[in-house]
Design a protein that fits this description.
Elements lengths: L1 H20 L4 H13 L7 H5 L1 H4 L8 H12 L2 H6 L9 H16 L4 E3 H7 L5 H13 L3 E6 L4 E7 L8 H23 L2
Antiparallel strand pairs: 1-3, 2-3
Amino acid sequence: MSEIVLSSSARQRLEPYLLLSKSAKGGACVQLIKDALAAPGVYVFAELLEMPNVAELQNNEQHVSYHTLLRLFSYGTYKDYKENASTLPQLEATQLNKLKHLSIVSLSEESRTIPYDTLLQYLDIPNVRELEDLIIEAIYQDVIKGKLDQKRKQLEIEYTMGRDLRPGQIDQMLEVLSAWYVLKLLVIYFLYI
């Protein structure tokens, strides 16, 4: 039930930007992207990325970096931003924190327990206090649910919001589900013969 509410809530937060993107072009569309990336509670961007006026930015030499930045917020991480910072617009503090929140979500795909040292290095944070503040902010934003284990110096993830699916990722998911289904059928078959 909470996943349905979260999805609906995420959609509602993005809705004003989707509506505005229908008429925004060029520089106005760039400003719309900046606003969406800084907006509290907006953490999904794939629908905005697919809007025709936003998609046009990838063919505009002057504004292509903002389209790339929006794509990075949809599918990428802070590490990706750092690696391409010279070709991307500079982020405001709120945008930077949001990208770091999304990066924690991506890191949690690999492990539900993330050591502080890993987070400090990956997110380029100078000390544990700032890291814990960032994690607490992510928890309050409902990006993650978890516990700070200060004794073991790790973040224990219980739940994360879903990230936008990268192009081609749905095909990978379908392959995994198909393989799982076939395996399940085989197990049932061998249990009953």
